Amino acid sequence: MAGDFSLRVYCYLDRTQPQYAGFVGTVTQGDLMIEGMASLYIEAAPGNEVFRLVDIAVKSTEARPGAQVVEREFGMFEIHSHSQQAVIQAGEIVLSRLGLTPEDRLKPHVASAQLITNVDPYQAQLLNRFRRGSMLVASETLLVLEVAPAAYINIAANEAEKRANIKLIHVSSIGRFGRMWMSGTESEMKTAQAAAIAAIEGLEGRAG
């Protein structure tokens, strides 16, 4: 690979959860993901490398592309399938062509995590204007999580939904930082926060 190539994100989701998959369906422009599928997010720099990487991924297995985004600095794509093996194999083939391993990705980190208890109705209304998922209701507890690189927010959201009874309000996985909003009871949001942070901290990679 060229010396300026960087594998920023290699993020595998073994089984997408109902709300997470439903949310992705509201923002994707490619093949629709549904609950229970395996998914893989890869982010790279320079951004234009994504075109070649998607070509490798979709020609190698039955996995289908849900997203292909090229920005000024980075490019990101997502593939998914009912077959975990198909997604894993597609990722392995991409990495093989690059001469890399999953550990060559950037190690993610949590940039910020906040719990806002007893959300005020006016703030709930403000946030609801920007959400693509569930409605935030006054008096709920709001979890706001920010991670870098951005695409890792997907595994944080999916793992939080596995572990806690949550309402997924919004997920943003493009740019320098990924962000998610979830709501529910205070105890469930504490559980969700712990699960999301553990998912991020459990991923190995190189220092950025």
Q: Explain this structure to me?
A:
The protein has 208 residues and is an alpha+beta fold. It folds into two domains: 6-104, BMC (bacterial microcompartment) domain (Alpha-Beta Plaits); 109-201, BMC (bacterial microcompartment) domain (Alpha-Beta Plaits, 2-Layer Sandwich), CATH 3.30.70. 35% of the residues lie in helices and 28% in strands. It contains six helices and eight strands. The chain has helices spanning 18-27, 49-60, 84-98, 121-128, 153-163, 186-201; strands spanning 6-13, 38-45, 64-70, 75-81, 109-116, 141-148, 167-172, 178-184. Strand 3 (64-70) and strand 4 form a beta hairpin. Helix 2 (49-60) packs across helix 3 and helix 5 (153-163) packs across helix 6.
Compact description:
The chain is built from six helices and eight strands.
Write a concise keyword list for the protein shown above.
2 domains; alpha+beta; Alpha-Beta Plaits; 208 residues; 8 strands
What's the pLDDT, averaged over the residues? 95
Q: Classify the secondary structure makeup into a structural class.
A: alpha+beta
Neighbour order of strands in the largest sheet: 1-2-4-3
Total DSSP E strands:
8
Fraction of residues in helix: 25-40%
CATH topology of the largest domain: Alpha-Beta Plaits
- CATH top level class name of the largest domain: Alpha Beta
Unreliably modeled segments: none
- The termini sit apart by 18 Å
Q: Determine the CATH superfamily of the largest domain.
A: BMC (bacterial microcompartment) domain
- Rg over CA atoms: 17 Å
User: What count of helical segments does DSSP give?
Assistant: 6
Overall number of domains? 2
Task: Give the biggest sheet.
Answer: 4 strands, antiparallel
Q: Note the beta-strand portion.
A: 25-35%
Order of helices and strands: EHEHEEHEHEHEEH
Known CATH architecture of the largest domain: 2-Layer Sandwich
Question: How would you describe the shape?
Answer: globular
